[in-house]
Design a protein that fits this description.
The complex is a heterodimer of chains A (390) and B (345). In chain A, the strands form 3 sheets. A 3-stranded antiparallel β-sheet of chain A has the order 1-2-3. In chain A, strands 6-7-8 form a 3-stranded antiparallel β-sheet. Chain A has a two-stranded antiparallel ribbon with strand order 4-5. In chain A, strand 4 and strand 5 form a beta hairpin. Helix content of chain A is 50%, strand content 12%. With 390 residues, chain A is α+β, with helices and mostly antiparallel strands. Chain A has one domain: Orthogonal Bundle (Cytochrome-c3 Hydrogenase, chain B). Chain B is α+β, with helices and mostly antiparallel strands and 345 residues long. Among the domains of chain B are: 74 residues, Ubiquitin-like (UB roll), CATH 3.10.20; 40 residues, no CATH class. In chain B, strand 13 and strand 14 form a beta hairpin. The relative contact order of chain B is 0.08. The chains are: A alpha+beta (390), B alpha+beta (345). Chains A and B meet through helix 13 of A and helix 3 of B.
Chain lengths: 390, 345
């Protein structure tokens, strides 16, 4: 530290490489970081509070806007929590379609991560290819729900509607095409000497540290801990599928990169198994208090009309109690803690955001590195500010 | 006191109490539809059926008085089936009106159908054409929505003591009719107790959903009675007037004026500023101008002709406090005992 003086540099919130509106105050000694303080909250919308004034079904579109890069996974976490509170289980077909939507969302999330991560570090080409393939998933989302980025396709008790034959065709096309695309990504980066020099040995986190920081998801697995909620605590029929949990060895940026690249393959593998073994049957739970009667019945049957009216305008009342349900989101363990008080609103909703916890470890990870490495490290933990700030 | 068991719970109630009231006192709730706290039990809907040990048939809890030593079951598979079937029989000719019904969201029938989770109605019935026989300019009767619970007929007879309406016909063709047109005062007691949207207010129909309005509790301004009512306000406009059962001196009842005479509140013709006549024409003035003009005139009349040349007429639509102040003003300031009050409307 020459002359004992440091330079304070404000990075963000309006910085394209902070993946949203993260602001980090860096203290620099030359180009080396001696202290880093992340400031979050710039994207706070009060989603948890807003949810308290809504009925359970109405909250779903809010959850899309947490980790908007992988929206369906947020829906899944929330729906599982509400279903646990209400004590219902959705039919097998709905579970499989949820898995397909969830894994597609994971791939979408990783697409955005890979494209922007490479772009941040200077490899501009990758983003064009990942967004080309991301577009295919967007089309699948659109076919299922009508929305491309934030589908809100899941419902408490099942799905908004059944899938179409076109959906199956689009998914099969994607499953067929995507392994070729992954190979393409690898040729661009994996053995690229600049990429390796920028990522190897940067932002190392030991397995012990990762667990102590509360890391989950690919960032934890990059440090060599084989912890995946889909295996540890299977939900939504994940135990029906055969897949592996990739782990890293060193825990640096490059390892986290490799883990996510492998997750592409595992996800597409799960989607392939789910779409080929899709069970027949209804997509909504057979429960007159939760499942919305379809419009055909509403036009003819007064009891269906009344129930639809009540379910839409008021919604099912949750029993008193509290539940926690979590899913393996594209960034880590995304958990929803809900308290029911007998009314149709959640009395309290708390979201366990994996990105928030990853961000809290950021100061420890970037101290001692250069400014350019900050960008690489932020990219490698793959944070989304929509979820951090909620 | 009579001792009985309800759902295994020992209950002690005075003789003559119904099973429904006994269960309520023990904290056991029995679903009801036609039962209304202000009316004598009607017993038309069969929702409150209970099983009594030793009785072959289930009995209606609202009309059956307690008997020493009986054992009552309020919930069983059989009772649930009977209740569900009763609801289905009501639904069988209920129109698909919920999306346009003013009562939608506050409807007891909707609540019960949802509570019992009725997912289909297996029965079918021919739907006879029914014309709307009972209606006034203020009350609208929808015969198709009527579930023949008889609450309106009973309320007209028991609460108001009028007995202007009754049920005519039998089976699916039955409907509410006016039996004595001169007697009906359009007080709206019938629509207040109607559990469904069969009787609705004609002034506010299609204006909004009941759960979207803000209910502002206030006192009726029409007469000195001081009935408690709630103004249903949406977007700063009064949409309807409702009351809460058992609240205020009126205990939930209203007369035709209190219930339907609210349109003046948002009337464009309403006088909101004082007017002073100048050259034979009324002109808008400020309150200061108007009050000083009145004070001036009072003073000159008092000086010219003495205080007894002035008389004051107050209004029953003012509060007691305002009326007190008015007479005080007349006696102490003007100096006259010429004070009167309309005391009627």
């Amino acid at each position: 530290m020459a002359e004992g003086k440091t330079l304070t540099l404000n990075m963000g919130p309006h910085h394209p490489a902070t993946h949203g509106v993260l602001r980090i105050v860096l203290e620099l000694d030359g180009e080396v970081i001696v202290k880093a303080t992340p400031h979050v909250g710039q994207l706070h919308r009060g989603i948890e509070k807003i949810a308290e004034g809504m009925n359970f079904q109405q909250v779903i579109p809010l959850t899309d806007r947490l980790d908007y890069t992988a929206a369906s996974l947020n829906n899944l976490g929330y729906c599982l929590a509400v279903e646990k509170l209400l004590g219902i289980e959705v039919p097998k077909r709905a579970q499989y379609i949820r898995v397909i939507m969830g894994e597609l969302a994971r791939i979408m999330g990783h697409h955005l991560w890979l494209g922007s991560h490479a772009l941040d570090i200077g490899a501009m080409t990758v983003v064009f290819y990942t967004f080309r393939d991301r577009e295919m998933i967007m089309n699948i989302n659109e076919e299922a729900s009508g929305y491309r980025l934030t589908p809100s396709y899941l419902r408490v008790g099942g799905l908004a509607k059944d899938i179409t034959p076109d959906f199956i065709k689009f998914v099969r096309d994607f499953v067929k095409w995507f392994p070729t695309a992954i190979d393409g990504y690898h040729t661009l980066l994996t053995d690229n000497i600049i990429w390796r020099k920028r990522t190897m040995g940067v932002g190392k986190v030991s397995a012990e540290d990762a667990v102590n920081f509360g890391f989950t998801g690919p960032s934890l697995r990059g440090s060599g801990v084989p912890y995946d909620l889909r295996k540890v605590r299977p939900y939504s029929s994940y135990d029906d599928f055969d897949f592996q949990v990739p782990v890293g060895e060193v825990g640096d940026v490059y390892d986290r990169y490799l883990v996510r690249m492998e997750e592409f393959k595992q996800s597409i593998n799960i989607i392939d198994q789910a779409i080929e073994n899709l069970p027949e049957g209804p997509v909504n739970v057979d429960n007159p208090w939760v499942a919305n009667p379809d419009l055909g019945a509403v036009m003819e049957d007064i009891s269906a009309l009344i129930r639809r009216f009540k379910i839409q305008c008021e919604g099912p009342h949750a029993p008193e109690g509290e539940v926690y349900a979590s899913v393996e989101g594209s960034k880590g363990e995304l958990g929803f803690y809900l308290v029911g008080d007998g009314s149709e609103h959640p009395y309290r909703m708390k979201i366990r955001s994996p990105c928030y916890i990853l961000t809290s470890a950021l100061p420890k990870m970037i101290v001692g590195h250069m400014i350019a490495d900050v960008i690489a490290i932020i990219g490698s933990i793959d944070i989304v500010l929509g979820e951090i700030d909620r | 006191m009579v001792k009985l068991t309800i759902d295994g719970k020992e209950v002690k109630v005075p003789a003559g109490t119904t099973i429904l009231a006994a269960a309520k006192s023990a904290g056991i709730s029995i679903p009801t539809l036609c039962f209304h706290g202000r009316l004598d039990p009607i017993g038309s809907c069969r929702m409150c059926v209970v099983e009594i040990e030793g009785c072959a048939h289930p009995m209606a809890a609202c009309t059956t008085p307690v008997v020493e030593g009986i054992s009552v079951t309020t919930n069983s598979e059989r009772l649930q089936r009977i209740r569900k079937d009763s609801l289905k029989l009501i639904l069988v000719n209920h129109p698909l009106d919920c999306p346009i019904c003013d009562k939608g969201g506050e409807c007891l029938l909707q609540d019960l159908v949802y509570e019992f989770g009725i997912d289909r109605v297996e029965y079918q019935t021919p739907k006879p054409e029914r014309s709307s026989q009972y209606a006034t300019p203020l009350i609208r009767y929808w015969p198709d929505r009527c579930i023949m619970c008889l609450r309106c007929v009973t309320a007209c007879r028991e609460i108001k003591g009028i007995g202007a309406i009754d049920i005519k016909g039998a089976g699916y063709g039955s409907q509410v009719v006016v039996i004595d047109e001169d007697k009906c005062q359009s007080c709206g007691e019938c629509l207040q107790v109607c559990p469904t949207g069969a009787l609705t207010e004609n002034l506010s129909r299609y204006k909004g959903r009941p759960w979207l309005v803000k209910r502002v509790p206030t006192t009726c301004t029409y007469c000195g009675c001081g009935c408690q009512l709630e103004l249903n306000v949406e977007q700063n406009r009064v949409m309807a007037v409702t009351t809460k059962e058992g609240k205020g001196v009126n205990r939930g009842s209203l007369c035709v004026k209190g219930r339907f005479g609210y349109e003046f509140i948002n009337s464009e013709e309403r006088l909101t500023k004082p007017l002073i006549k100048k050259d034979g024409e009324f002109r808008e003035a400020s309150w200061d101008d108007a009050l000083s003009l009145v004070a001036e005139k009072f003073k000159s009349i008092k000086e010219e002709s003495g205080p007894d040349a002035i008389a004051g007429l107050s209004s029953a639509r003012c509060t007691n406090e305002e009326n007190y102040l008015f007479q005080k003003f007349m006696r102490a300031v003007i100096g006259t005992n010429n004070v009167d009050h309309c005391a009627r409307l």
